[in-house]
Amino acid sequence: MRIDLHTHAFSAHTAPKVLAALLGHAHRTLPGFVAHGDGTVPDLVHMERAAGFDRFAICPIATRPEQHAYMARFLAALRSGALGEEAARRVIPCVSLHPRDPDAEAHLRALVRLGAKLVKLHPFSQGIRLDHRAMIRLLRIITDAGLPVLCHTGHDVTAETEGLATPIQILNVHRQVPGLRMVCAHCAAWKCPETLRFLLGRPIGVDLSFQPATGVEPIIRRFAAEHPAEHLYFGSDWPWANPAAHAARIAAWGLPQSRLDAILGGNAARLLGL
Length: 274
Known about the structure:
The structure is a single chain. The protein has a single domain (3-272), classed as Alpha-Beta Barrel (TIM Barrel), CATH 3.20.20.140. 43% of the residues lie in helices and 11% in strands. It is built from twelve helices and nine strands. The chain has a six-stranded parallel sheet with strand order 4-5-6-7-8-9.
């Protein structure tokens, strides 16, 4: 089973505005940052089918505490087929909660009943440090519920603030949240070269998503080759990368087939119980 653990998609109505806004922010520091699709669910389904991926997670981000209600609507639409029959079969139900949601525990229980399998967090979009006490509280709630976390780490190309998801903070949260199953998106690589010192080789999950414009490919390649094989995951971060091209890029690094198979889906299938 081939699994893309990290994608984003938006409604046909909002996708053009969201992509334009994010690209506008990104181009202030990375003019080469581009989108590889229109950001809609049908386009994502088409791209993943063409790339040969069986399952893929659409990862929303709760930027306000009240958006737990949106997450419930998203899961209901997915289950009902309102997002398309193929999406209903292949999309991994992923949700997000805001660290400042006072009722996060109850809201997560409700989302699990609706089928949630994964929680996405994004310190930059949510405006809170990864190791802030509110984030620690939420990570404990998610861990107690038995769900894994996919978290943006490193710097963010659309953000002006820095230092919200650093390698040191990743180590801090693992010390404070026993049993945490967190996949660190982008290997915490961009603007954090110290990730090689603090994270490489540790039993901490990382996904190998990145854009060439960020210049972090040498760091990502080291994780792909040297990190414990059972803690590596494929993520395209679509629409910011083409899943087929990104998988081909990783395959061209000459990794052993067993390691490549683990990256392209074996590890994610075990993480999610698929």
